[in-house]
């Protein structure tokens, strides 16, 4: 850059005070435009009438302190377009408003529509008896800006018309003394401060006009602190409200979920076969209490369980009664069949009587298991030896593999019944070879036939249900499952990948 260009650049720059004065109050400046500040932003004056009402209340207190003079002044410094002074006059009581001389001080022209009783001035009035109110006025008094240069010298900041800043002359005189007292910068390069001396003088001149009464200045910082305080109050109020809502909601939800959890537990117990389980929700027993959806579900579940229990008990009684009634005539029929002369017809009769007698005994055993009153007679047993006895007693060609033998505390008769039924079922409905494997407390019976039906693998055996043209009544596996439950063991059914049915008994 040439010396001439540098000189033109420096000549184009001016201090922040002069630049702000031109931008705000010069011809076409921000505060002289027709739309006024309200056309660009909103302050507390524009946001709510509450601000004007508060100022009116303050004027009434000043009036009371002055002894209600015949003429009460209200001066609005930096009046904008007269919004505050108009609002204060509207909010004043009639007797105070009648004695009030309203004055608005603003560099802009008088706006149209302002009440005639409001005096419009461009300079401070000579004497004030009442309230002089400067709302965000001092913030708009132009001031210079100072900055510490690289040598630690405090200099005025100049600004060109294009917005580029330059450091100018050293701060001196009254400005330097003001900085030293009110905003000392030290020697760190780049630190800045506003030289507030013009604002101090402007406020001193304004206060000097007040002969009797009160002068009040409200600046941006004060409103920012008020807004920050309101924000904090709103934040804490919101936190407290949300916390209270969460606590109340958590309490209510916890009560509902606890009741739902109890209902779900009862439902699981019923599905596991405990038909004595009931929810017993207190609301269902007291019609005066509100009946919500949880109570309705609980009542429906209790009714369903009672209905299922009633039907199951009826079926169990019917099964037991039929078995008992058949037992006596079958005993006589068996004795009579033994007296028949030898021959093929006699063999057929004896075979059918034996099958019917076995069926009756199975039904009686199932009815006893259904009552849930069976008791164990436990003793220590070697599982491998017990499995071999079961296979010998079955009279079948079943391979026994003892991978790891263990001693178990169990009811020998019931365990033999379970394993005997599994072996018999494997030979009756599967194909050889049938293998019984003992590995610790786990006994597996596998055949190499077509496998268990899908329903049996999913839901377990069901009495009198058979599929695929197989012979039998489905009672053998039903008895095996019932006896396993009495033993506290778990009996599961599945199909091998290579084919064949697999029953696994896991002892406790």
Give a description of the structure:
The chain is α/β, with parallel strands linked by helices and 508 residues long. Helix content is 51%, strand content 19%. The strands form four sheets. Strands 1, 6, 7, 8 and 9 form a five-stranded antiparallel sheet that branches. Helix 11 runs antiparallel to helix 12 and helix 14 runs antiparallel to helix 16 (475-487). Residues 1-9 have low confidence and may be disordered.
Question: In a nutshell, what does this entry contain?
Answer:
The chain is of the alpha/beta class. It contains 16 helices and 17 strands.
**Shape call:** elongated
Estimate the helix proportion, in percent.
40-55%
Please mark out the parts with pLDDT under 50 across 5 or more consecutive residues, or reply none.
1-9
Tally of alpha and pi helices: 16
Gyration radius, in Å: 52 Å
Summarize this structure as a short list of keywords or feature phrases.
alpha/beta; disordered N terminus; 508 residues; 16 helices
What is the fold's blueprint, element by element?
Layout: H1 3-12, E1 14-15, H2 16-25, H3 44-47, H4 49-65, E2 72-77, H5 83-91, H6 94-99, E3 100-105, E4 118-121, E5 128-135, E6 144-148, E7 154-159, E8 165-170, H7 173-182, E9 192-195, H8 197-208, E10 210-218, H9 220-271, H10 282-285, H11 293-338, H12 344-371, E11 379-382, H13 383-394, E12 398-404, E13 407-410, H14 412-429, E14 434-439, E15 442-446, H15 454-459, H16 475-487, E16 490-495, E17 501-506
Parallel strand pairs: 2-3, 2-5, 3-4, 5-10, 12-14
Antiparallel strand pairs: 1-7, 6-7, 6-9, 7-8, 11-13, 14-15, 15-17, 16-17
Helix pairs in contact: 4-5, 9-11, 11-12, 12-16, 13-14, 14-16
């Amino acid at each position: 850059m040439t010396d001439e260009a540098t000189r033109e650049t420096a000549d184009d720059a001016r201090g922040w005070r002069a630049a702000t004065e031109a931008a705000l109050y010069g011809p076409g400046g921000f505060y002289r435009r027709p739309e006024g500040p309200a056309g660009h932003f909103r302050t507390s004056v524009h946001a709510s009438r509450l601000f004007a009402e508060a100022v009116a209340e303050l004027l009434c207190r000043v009036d009371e302190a002055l002894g209600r003079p015949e003429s009460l002044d209200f001066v609005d410094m930096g009046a904008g377009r007269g919004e505050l002074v108009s609002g204060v006059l509207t909010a004043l009581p009639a007797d105070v408003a009648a004695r009030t001389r309203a004055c608005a001080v603003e560099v802009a022209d008088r706006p149209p529509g302002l009440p005639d009783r409001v005096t419009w001035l461009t300079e401070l009035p000579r004497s004030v008896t009442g309230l002089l109110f400067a709302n965000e006025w001092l913030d708009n008094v132009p001031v210079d800006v100072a900055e510490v240069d690289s040598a630690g010298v405090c200099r005025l900041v100049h600004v060109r018309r294009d917005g580029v800043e330059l450091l100018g002359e050293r701060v001196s005189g009254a400005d330097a003394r003001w900085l030293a007292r009110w905003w000392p910068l030290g020697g760190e390069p780049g630190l800045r401060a506003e030289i507030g001396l013009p604002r101090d003088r402007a406020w001193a001149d304004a206060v000097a006009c007040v002969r009797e009464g009160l002068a009040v200045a409200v600046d941006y910082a004060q409103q920012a602190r008020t807004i920050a305080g309101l924000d904090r109050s709103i934040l804490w109020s919101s936190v407290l409200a949300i916390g209270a809502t969460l606590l109340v909601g958590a309490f209510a939800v916890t009560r509902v979920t606890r009741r739902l959890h109890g209902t779900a537990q009862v439902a699981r117990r019923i599905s596991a076969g405990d038909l004595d389980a009931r929810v017993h929700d207190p609301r269902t027993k007291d019609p005066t209490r509100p009946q919500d959806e949880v109570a309705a579900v609980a009542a429906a579940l209790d009714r369903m369980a009672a209905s299922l229990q009633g039907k199951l008990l009826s079926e169990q009684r019917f099964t037991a009664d039929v078995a008992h009634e058949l037992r006596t005539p079958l005993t006589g029929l068996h004795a009579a069949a033994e007296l028949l002369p030898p021959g093929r017809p006699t063999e057929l009769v004896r075979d059918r009587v034996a099958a019917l007698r076995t069926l009756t005994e199975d039904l009686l055993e199932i009815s006893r298991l259904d009552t849930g009153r069976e008791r164990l007679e436990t003793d220590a047993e070697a599982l491998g030896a017990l499995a071999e006895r079961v296979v010998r007693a079955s009279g079948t060609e079943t391979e026994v593999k003892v991978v790891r033998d263990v001693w178990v505390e169990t009811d020998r008769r019931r365990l033999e019944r379970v394993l005997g039924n599994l072996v018999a079922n494997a030979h009756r409905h599967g194909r050889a070879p049938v293998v019984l494997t003992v590995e610790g407390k786990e006994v597996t019976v596998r055949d190499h036939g077509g496998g268990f039906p899908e329903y049996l693998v999913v839901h377990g055996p069901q009495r009198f249900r058979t599929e695929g043209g197989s012979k039998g009544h489905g009672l053998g596996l039903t008895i095996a499952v019932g006896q396993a439950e009495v033993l506290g063991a778990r009996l599961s059914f599945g199909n091998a990948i290579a084919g064949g049915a697999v029953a696994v008994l896991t002892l406790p």
